[in-house]
Amino acid sequence: MRLMYINYFQCAISLNLVDIHEFFYIPRKKKKQKNKEIYMGDFINNAPFALVIVFLIIGFVLLIKGADFFVEGSSSVAKRLHVPSIIIGLTIVAMGTSLPETAVSVSASITGNNELAVSNVVGSNIFNLMVVIGVCAMIATVNVAKETIKRDIPFSLICAGLLLILGILGVGDKSGMMLGHFDGVIFIGAFAGYIFYMIKIALKASKEGKKIEIEGGSDEDIKLISVPLSILFIIGGAAAIAVGGDITVDAASRIASDLGMSQTLIGLTIVSIGTSLPELVTSIVAARKNEVDMALGNAIGSNVFNILMVLGIASAISPISIITENIIDLCVLIVFTICVWIFAGTKKKIGRIEGFSMVALYVIYAVYIIIR
């Protein structure tokens, strides 16, 4: 029964994104001008450049705050349905951090901005891993759990490798260099299996009386609000996520066009950094309080969600083309993950020197993608 509730929330996320996207993007005819079509993309494409920047910021705000409201409303409903807090933390709260990336990638794939769909995810993963954790380590030593070293990082490498293989081979599709419907189903299936496994080991550990640290996985972390307000948060949050994703994609595409930049570069930099800023700010605040024990585990978990859930949903809805730059960036992500794995496995912690090295590697990578 609990898994049924979880599936309900997963379906609600994807269905709301598609339905609301169609509402805003299906061409609608004016009454007086029958042959002209109007939608948000036209307005952004014809707006002054300064206004486009404002729209991009608005898109980020809608994505981030919409995800917060959606998670808060969904968590409250789940708690009223007596779903254990651990399960809520591992599903609704964990997925909430990837909702902005989901909205951007789904919107990008539907509107044919395939480069942005993939680069947004890969860029977010690299930024989370190298900058968020690197900055945390420069402020306070990040202790690394044994499970993160032995289970989470290896699994994140498997996910990145799977994306690389499916992207190149195009399993189940007519041609390679494509993430098609069948590839999306594979990702979603792997994501469901991952969630089921994490819930299973968390409940087992809880029964054995072991201390479990899961973000948003305690009764104190979950606010209980009224049912009408919860429904309003869920619907309003989903609408904000969907609209924010559309606006972000349109604004990013317009900026790329005006500045002569590729959508891949925009996705790897502006969009991925914008959707990851809340994690960076939260991590810096936690580091100042010396509360960063879960930082690396959370970043690795977010990277797994981004690949399996975000690209799974996006490619299952609309096939995504893979270009050579995406393959290179995926290889960089794998190399960076191995570097962090070595840093974490050597001393079971990531210190200031390692943190500085991680940020420096990201800066070098950023320079490379700008000049390539």
UniProtKB/TrEMBL annotation:
The chain crosses the membrane at residues 47-64, 126-145, 152-172, 184-203, 224-245, 265-287, 299-321, 327-346, 353-371. It is found in: Membrane. Residues 52-199, 230-370 form the Sodium/calcium exchanger membrane region domain. One of its GO terms (molecular function) is calcium, potassium:sodium antiporter activity. Gene3D superfamilies: NCX, central ion-binding region. Pfam families: Na_Ca_ex (PF01699). GO terms for cellular component: plasma membrane. It is a multi-pass membrane protein. GO terms for biological process: intracellular calcium ion homeostasis. Keywords: Membrane, Plasmid, Transmembrane, Transmembrane helix. InterPro entries: K/Na/Ca-exchanger, NaCa_Exmemb, NCX_ion-bd_dom_sf. The keyword Metal-binding does not apply. NCBIfam families: calcium/sodium antiporter. This is Sodium/calcium exchanger membrane region domain-containing protein.
